[in-house]
Amino acid sequence: MARTDQQLRREVGAEREKLVEAVDALRGEAAGIRGRMRARLPLAAAGALGVGTAVRLLRRRGRKD
Length: 65
What we know:
It is a single chain. It is built from 1 helix and no strands. With 65 residues, the chain is mostly helical. It is rod-shaped, with a radius of gyration of 27 Å.
């Protein structure tokens, strides 16, 4: 059965609404993730600095022996 132009327009409109809702939900999730990452950035930076320092010291120790 062929669909009329009006039916197609309604279906496309409904799909657009679903897409808008999905995009809004994803943006909300991304904002939440971004906020959590910002809150933990100082801890992550300190951890990376500590790991980098430890690796550097271990490499130096390995060369001296």
